[in-house]
Design a protein that fits this description.
This protein is α/β, with parallel strands linked by helices. Helices cover about 30% and strands about 25% of the residues. It is built from 11 helices and 21 strands. Helix 9 packs across helix 10. The structure holds adenosine-5'-diphosphate and zinc ion.
Length: about 450
C-alpha cells in the first residue's frame, strides 16, 4: 500500500462544509450548549459570576468570556459532578486511563454514543478503512475510551471488527496470521511491539497482509511512523482524542497526512499559551483547548487538555475544511524541565530514531542527586546492532548523545541495553521516570 494509491473518501459531507457555514453552525450549537450546561453547578455559578447567557454568544470569539475548565475542576466534582442530564439518561460511563492520577469519569447518552461512533468513522474512512475490511483492535477495552470508541467507529464504517483487546502479544500475532485483517488499531508503541515479537517468533510482520494502521492515544513522531510502516508494510495514520472531550474522534489524519483534521462541527478548538492563557497564532505551539458543541451528557466548555500542538487552517487537498492540528508534542505535565530547559519525551524519540541501530524503545530517567538535574536515557539497540565490541557501542553512544544534544539542547547519560531489555506495555508506553517527583523536589 502506498500513499499515492490511497483513494480519498469522505464519510460525512459535514467534513467538507464551507467554513462560513460551519461557523454559523458552531455559533448556534454554542448557544445551545451554554443553555444546556446551566444544569451543571460549576457552569451555572461561573455564568452567574460573569453574566453569561446563551444570547451573550454573539460570535465564537465571545466564548473567551467563559472561564476555562481544567482536570482539577473535574476532580473537584468527582465522580460525575459535570453531568448535564439526569442519571437515568446515561447510557455509558468511561474514564480517563489515569495516566496522570486518579481516573476521571465521563458519561454518554445514547445520542452521544451515536455521535462518537460517527466521528471515529470519519477518520477511519479518511485513513483508508472500507466496509469490506476486517479490523483488528488491540486497544484496551474497559474504562479507557480507545477500545470501545474505535470498536463502534469500525462498525459504523461497516467493516468487520475483531475485538482482540490489548495484551498477550503472541496471541495477537496468531490471530493476525489466521484472520489476515487489513487494518490494525492500537497505540503506536504497541504496533511496533507486535512487529518485533512477530519477527522474534519467525513471522515476517510485512507478510501478515495488513494495509493500514490507525494509531493514537500517546505521542509519537514522524520517524516512528516511518519505522512502523517499514516494519509492518502498512500506511499508518494518526488520530487524537481524550475521554473528557469524547474519546478518539476529536481529530484524525486524511490521505494527505499533513495534520489531523479537527471535527469542528462538533468541537471548537483554541490554542493558548499555557502560562499566560492568551491565544497563540496559527502555526505556533500551545495548549489545545476544546469546547464540545453537541455532547449531551458531559458537555465541557474551554477544557484545557494540557496537550501541546499547533493549528493550521490552510486548505487541504482532500477537501475537508476543518482546521488541522499538528502531532501532539506531549502533555504539559510530561514536559521535563532539565536544568531550566524544556524537553518533551517525543524529542528524545525523534533524536533516537535519527541514529541507525537504535530501536524506539526508551526510558528517560531524571534525578537530582545534588544541585543539578541528571538525565539518563536507557535505549534499546536493534538486534543486529547490539555488539559486545566496546568500540562499536561507544561510537553508537556518541552518535546518540550528539543527536539528543542537537534536538533538545541538553546532554544526557546514555545506557545502551540489549534488544527487549526494556519493559513493553500493551497500551500507552511509559517513557519517563522522574525521581525528582518521588523526592518531592518538583
Ligand atoms: P489519560 O489522561 O488518562 O491518558 P485518555 O485515555 O483520555 O486519558 O487519553 C487522552 C490523552 O492521550 C490526550 O490528552 C493526549 O495526551 C494523549 N493522546 C491521545 N491521542 C494522541 C495522539 N494521537 N498523539 C499524542 N497524544 C495523544
Ligand atoms: Zn485533508
Amino acid at each position: 500500500m502506498t500513499e499515492a494509491s490511497l483513494e480519498n473518501r469522505i464519510f460525512d459531507p459535514a467534513e467538507t462544509m464551507p467554513p462560513a457555514e460551519r461557523r454559523a453552525l458552531q455559533l448556534q450549537r454554542l448557544r445551545e450548549t451554554v443553555a444546556r450546561v446551566a444544569n451543571v453547578p460549576f457552569y451555572r455559578e461561573a455564568f452567574a459570576r460573569e453574566g453569561i447567557r446563551p444570547e451573550s454568544m454573539g460570535s465564537p470569539a465571545d466564548l473567551r468570556r467563559v472561564p476555562f475548565t481544567t482536570k482539577a475542576d473535574l476532580r473537584d466534582h468527582y465522580p460525575l459532578g459535570f453531568l448535564a442530564v439526569p442519571r437515568s439518561e446515561v447510557a455509558r460511563i468511561h474514564g480517563s486511563s489515569g495516566t496522570t492520577g486518579k481516573p476521571t469519569f465521563v458519561a454518554y447518552t445514547a445520542a452521544d454514543l451515536k455521535l462518537w461512533a460517527g466521528l471515529c468513522a470519519r477518520f477511519l474512512v479518511a485513513g483508508g478503512m472500507r466496509p469490506e475490511h476486517t479490523v483488528h483492535i488491540a486497544f484496551g477495552y474497559g474504562l479507557f475510551t480507545g477500545g470501545f470508541g474505535l470498536h463502534y467507529g469500525v462498525e459504523r464504517v461497516g467493516a468487520a471488527v475483531v475485538p482482540v483487546a490489548s495484551g498477550n502479544t503472541r496471541r495477537q500475532i496468531m490471530i493476525l496470521t489466521d484472520l489476515r485483517p487489513e487494518v490494525l488499531v492500537c497505540t503506536p508503541s504497541y504496533a511496533l511491539n507486535i512487529a518485533e515479537v512477530a519477527r522474534a517468533d519467525g513471522v515476517d510482520p510485512r507478510c501478515l497482509g495488513l494495509k493500514f494502521g490507525h494509531f493514537g492515544a500517546e505521542p509519537w513522531t514522524e520517524d516512528m511512523r516511518k519505522r512502523i510502516e517499514e516494519e509492518l508494510g502498512i500506511l499508518a495514520f494518526n488520530n487524537y482524542g481524550l475521554s473528557e472531550i469524547i474519546g478518539p474522534g476529536v481529530s484524525g489524519e486524511c490521505c494527505c497526512r499533513n495534520g489531523m483534521h479537527i471535527q469542528e462541527d462538533h468541537f471548537i478548538v483554541e490554542v493558548v499559551d499555557p502560562q499566560s492563557l492568551e491565544p497563540v497564532a496559527d502555526g505556533e505551539p500551545g495548549e489545545l483547548v476544546f469546547t464540545t458543541l453537541t455532547k449531551q451528557a458531559f458537555p465541557l466548555l474551554r477544557y484545557r487538555t494540557r496537550d501541546i500542538a499547533s493549528l493550521s487552517r490552510s486548505s487541504c487537498p482532500c477537501g475537508r475544511t476543518g482546521a488541522r492540528m499538528s502531532r501532539v508534542a506531549g502533555r504539559t505535565d510530561d514536559m521535563l524541565i532539565i536544568r531550566g530547559v524544556n524537553v518533551f519525551p517525543s524529542q528524545i524519540e525523534e533524536a533516537l530514531l535519527r541514529v541507525e541501530g537504535t530501536a524506539p524503545h526508551y526510558l528517560i530517567e531524571v534525578d537530582r542527586p545534588g544541585t543539578l538535574d541528571e538525565v539518563t536515557v536507557h535505549v534499546e539497540v536493534r538486534p543486529g546492532d547490539f555488539s559486545d565490541k566496546m568500540r562499536e557501542m561507544e561510537s553508537l553512544r556518541q552518535r546518540i548523545g550528539r543527536e539528543i544534544q542537537i534536538v533538545t539542547g541538553i546532554s544526557v547519560k546514555l545506557n545502551l541495553v540489549a534488544p527487549q531489555a526494556l519493559e513493553r506495555t500493551a497500551g500507552k508506553a511509559k517513557r519517563v521516570l522522574d525521581h525528582r517527583k518521588e523526592k518531592g523536589i518538583l
